[in-house]
């Protein structure tokens, strides 16, 4: 009886997690003209059509660029920040940690509106620059969090040993600390990349005419055209995320860091 | 040979507003193996970190080989430190761990290889060059850490609790190893420990520290036989320590008449110095255990608990029975407070 109950719970959970994904895959593989489930026959035409839509191509490139460079920038800021918070007894370290984590806690709608009202409008930043800054800020908490946890596992006496062997502080960081936290840095990159790529609410406010991230572009597309291509694209993106996480898990045991 | 190879003068060390070591003066002789001994919080590790340059003194100075290094950065002092945790670099092989410091110097690859191989051979790890630290035993890791410091030919080698992470057999092995390395290289060694048996067995001289101050400084024999204070006596295994007041031995629980004249304010006996089976005093056996060469008694007396070792030749007195004992003058160690 107990066995039956736990199986039931597991089945329901998996159905809710994987079910929508399966529906999307099949909805995209429809032979018909409208988004529907079950589909009117099966074909790959919508999967192929996705690649011919010019606006999707442009927004895909923008989203990729934002995810890659936004995450890199977040790591450039986040790794030193995590190191400082971890190694030095800074006054107000807890407050800094909370502020750094706030983009996770504050709803994206609010972050987006605030950035629009107080950053983009007064400064007149271009849409691309504003998006880049916003995505960097959004990914930063993940970078700090994940890198911090791998720094916690690294004893500080290793750096002292390096210094006593002749290293400067900076050399000790590059020769001893970085090689030992590279797994954490990579994990932070992947987590940041996926977060940024799938971001909707903040990008919604900051996207401008002709400059849209892929998720926003998909929303816009659906308002006008109700064909299965959006479902096909969603399925392709889900497969891409899955592949990234799968490779990461194989390469560095991703689940240890998240 | 310099008598002041490492010289600490009026050294004050603090963490924030907490003074850990106030005004320490200590001279270490070139080529000696000196132990900083004391309980945790006595300032021994703090002192060692200051010598290494990892902690900047609040005031006072540190000189090594006649040169004031108080303001010299840790990476320019030429001091080696073997950490308690070994602090090996987990991402590097044994060879690269030892070569790490040499590679930072302007040195040819051939020279690095030669000196690293020699260093690895010194600690008996030839054949383990390709292993990562995680693939080595605790004893091997420690020898690797030792080699990593030694190849730098440091002026002073500091060791933080060098034997504490090893089991009894390895401890003996490492002890011999350290003495051999020290003889072979002549390097001045300062090691920190809270274990008096470690200090007694290894050191040429022992600095016993309490509350950041030197309680007593001497050879292991001097400290063992002639502790000067109650603190030193307790550390050296004098488990029975009493005050002397008006011809009586006094403790917090009571008193007993002293059978001889004493001028010192305190007297102490090791358990082995207490005479059991005969004597003017009596008490009740509250615990008894067989310790191989002798039997250890805990006796309830008017002075409180007294620890006494009895020969195994004498018949065992069961727990609860009365036992006669004496605190003889010959085994009494006079203490100044």
Automatic annotation (TrEMBL), chain A:
Keyword Transmembrane among record annotations: yes
SUPFAM superfamilies, sorted: MetI-like
Domain of life (superkingdom): Bacteria
Signal peptide positions on this chain: none
A GO cellular component entry from the record: plasma membrane
InterPro entries registered for this protein in UniProt: MetI-like (IPR000515), MetI-like_sf (IPR035906)
The protein's name in its UniProt record: Inner membrane ABC transporter permease protein YdcV
Automatic annotation (TrEMBL), chain B:
Gene Ontology BP term (one): quaternary ammonium group transport
Domain of life, per lineage: Bacteria
Annotated EC: 3.6.3.31
Enzyme class: hydrolase
Signal peptide: none
GO MF term list: ATP binding; ATP hydrolysis activity
InterPro entries per record: AAA+_ATPase, ABC_SmlMolc_Importer, ABC_transporter-like_ATP-bd, ABC_transporter-like_CS, P-loop_NTPase
Occurrences of domain ABC transporter (ranges): 6-236
Gene3D superfamilies named in the record: P-loop containing nucleotide triphosphate hydrolases
Record PROSITE patterns: ABC_TRANSPORTER_1 (PS00211), ABC_TRANSPORTER_2 (PS50893)
Alphabetical keyword list: ATP-binding, Hydrolase, Nucleotide-binding, Transport
PANTHER family: SPERMIDINE/PUTRESCINE IMPORT ATP-BINDING PROTEIN POTA (PTHR42781), SPERMIDINE_PUTRESCINE IMPORT ATP-BINDING PROTEIN POTA (PTHR42781:SF4)
Name by which UniProt lists this protein: Spermidine/putrescine import ATP-binding protein PotA
